[in-house]
Specification:
Chains A, B: Pfam families: LacI (PF00356), Peripla_BP_3 (PF13377). Chains A, B: It comes from Streptomyces avidinii. Chains A, B: One of its GO terms (molecular function) is DNA binding. The structure is a homodimer. Chain A is an alpha/beta fold. Chain A folds into 3 domains: 55 residues, lambda repressor-like DNA-binding domains (434 Repressor (Amino-terminal Domain), Orthogonal Bundle), CATH 1.10.260.40; 122 residues, 3-Layer(aba) Sandwich (Rossmann fold), CATH 3.40.50.2300; 129 residues, Rossmann fold (3-Layer(aba) Sandwich), CATH 3.40.50. Chain A is 44% helix and 17% strand. Chain A is built from 14 helices and 11 strands. In chain A, the strands form 2 sheets. Chain A has a 6-stranded mixed β-sheet with strand order 7-6-8-9-10-11, with helices on both faces. In chain A, strands 2-1-3-4-5 form a 5-stranded parallel β-sheet, sandwiched between helices. In chain A, strand 8, helix 12 and strand 9 form a beta-alpha-beta unit. Strand 2 of chain A pairs antiparallel with strand 2 of chain B.
């Protein structure tokens, strides 16, 4: 532990310049690897020594201002909305981006208006923006980002957005996949769980719509049922379950499925005899339930595919298409 | 959808200056609210109009360079290591920071050396750094950040770190709380689950040490047992469980507890008769297990308390102490 307890003052490039006996501009040329300026090897060494001695860290923002871009890749995301499924995937994506020299940050701001969001992201002048929940991207928002110099715009979304490299992620297909399976299993009155937790509504609504469009083509009905991720909310729903007249449920994801399964069983409602259940994400916990949960597995493009596309976009302005997210029904014992 | 499909060029303050008929410096004074420069109301209006017309977003980095600081609060965190327990808490913290005008970002970089981490964070010149896993903070790392102008350094850590506003989070107390309970329940051969997932080792090791120090004061033993968060790993552990001669386990958290509980039951091992289990975090799923899981609840300071402290640190360089994280044993049916 250092004995010296004074608070160190901020070190600037001026301090480095003074110690190295060069101009501040020369310090900037050396530390920011500015092209088109000749600095002798000995001067360069003197500057690097002085920076090291003073513990000077170059300012990424200053560097990005000079170079006209940063190495930041911004992912708009609230971490509680990012489920267990994608959290490992996002970590892996960050590692892959790191391989290319990018620094990935999650931006946690919540915005009612996509344009406000785009403006807030643009202020950080990232090299790229990668949105998992890209259905709120608009052409205007993309334009705000492009005009601010953001070169890589990649979004998971159900429909192509002008100016954005879109990876297909159609949440209606998730609800449709679950509903098709439940109807094939002979069920006709399907409840679709709508999680009440913030940030999930924009994902849950298209899943409901997908189930509804499948039901409309068969003699089946779909009823949205609200559920919060608490034991109390699940018990309340289970108590009024028989009054709803439903013989099946698609539960948004496996965690809500496990919660509802336990609550239904506590009310003496037998799964799957009285109610068939289908979750989503194929989490480890799905196989642990008794009976084991049927679920929709989401086959994602690999983090390396996304990182490659982001880098291509930043470097060249275009990128090869990335395969879409594909929902696959995994039948176990609850359906 | 706009018919015009050209990719818009980057808009800079020079474009705004041209349209407004003023100098680039004047644009900067107006858009960055620079103090000490007089700009007439009509010039100001002209600049704001031009910026709006062109869709120009000021550069946060440029603003931070001029103001000498940014409004960024950086949280080093891999999102998969941030458990379910803290993910809602982190979201709430981001909202509280937003109230003060800060933008919170999660920095996902992984670093073997705390100094490398500090340098990478320092490059972004945040106003503050908030570390949940602060035991890897060193006085040297704090100095790198302080010298780079970071004013708010707040870390959850077991011991005070020079130059860092420390919030007590002693993971040894979590392991000790679990071990004390298990010993009070008549158990003497305690397994401590060591999760093999990346990022969790630094949290699991002190929990093990805490259990060991309690066991050493009683006639009890502690045995670390490795477990990955997969069904296969849990089954393998359950199959060799009886050979380990353990009558209790503290499982790192509730998710590993649920996984191990199911695997033990599948091997015909009765919980709690043969093995008592204690998880951690008091998640919703703990109450859903059969039998319901005993657990260690972690009482955290509120997100508002942390945001207040961060803002105080940034504004004044000091802050009132924040209450430490407090582990509380919740006994249910597995112990």
């Amino acid at each position: 532990m250092a004995k010296d307890t004074h608070v160190p003052a901020s070190i600037t490039s001026a301090d480095v310049a003074r110690l190295a006996g060069v101009s501040r501009a020369t310090v900037s040329f050396v530390l920011n690897d500015t092209q088109g300026h000749r600095v002798s090897a000995s001067t360069r060494a003197r500057v690097l020594d002085a920076a090291k001695q003073l513990g000077y860290v170059p300012h990424a923002a200053a560097r990005s201002l000079r170079a006209g871009r940063s190495n930041l890749v911004l992912m708009p995301a609230s971490i509680s909305a990012v489920g267990r499924l994608v959290s490992d995937w996002v970590d892996d994506l960050h590692s892959e981006l790191d391989r290319y020299g990018y620094t990935a940050v999650l931006h946690a701001g919540r915005f009612a208006d996509p344009l406000d969001a785009a403006r807030a992201w643009a202020e950080l002048r990232p090299a790229a923006v990668v949105a998992l929940d890209g259905d709120r991207f608009t052409p205007r928002a993309a334009e705000v980002l492009t005009r601010a110099g953001v070169r890589g715009l990649l979004a998971f979304a159900s429909h192509p957005v002008e100016g954005v490299h879109t990876v297909g992620f159609d949440h209606t297909r998730i609800g449709a996949t679950a509903a098709e399976h439940l109807i094939a299993r002979g069920r006709s009155r399907i409840g679709v769980v709508m999680p009440q937790e913030r940030g999930l509504g924009t994902l849950a609504a298209p899943r409901l719509a997908g189930a509804e469009s499948v039901a409309a083509r068969h003699m089946a009905t779909v009823t949205p049922v609200e559920l919060s991720y608490t034991r109390e909310s699940a018990s309340a729903l289970a108590r009024r379950w028989r009054g709803l007249g439903l013989d099946a449920a698609f539960t948004y994801n496996d965690e809500y499925a496990a919660l509802l399964l336990h609550a239904l069983q506590a009310e003496g409602i037998v799964v799957p005899d009285e109610v068939a259940l289908v979750g989503c994400d194929d989490l480890v916990l799905a196989t642990l339930q008794q009976p084991a949960l049927s679920t929709v597995r989401l086959d994602m493009p690999t983090p390396a595919q996304i990182a490659d596309a982001v880098h291509e976009l930043v470097e060249t302005g275009t990128a090869k298409p990335v395969p879409a997210v594909n929902p696959v029904l995994i039948q176990r014992r609850t359906s």
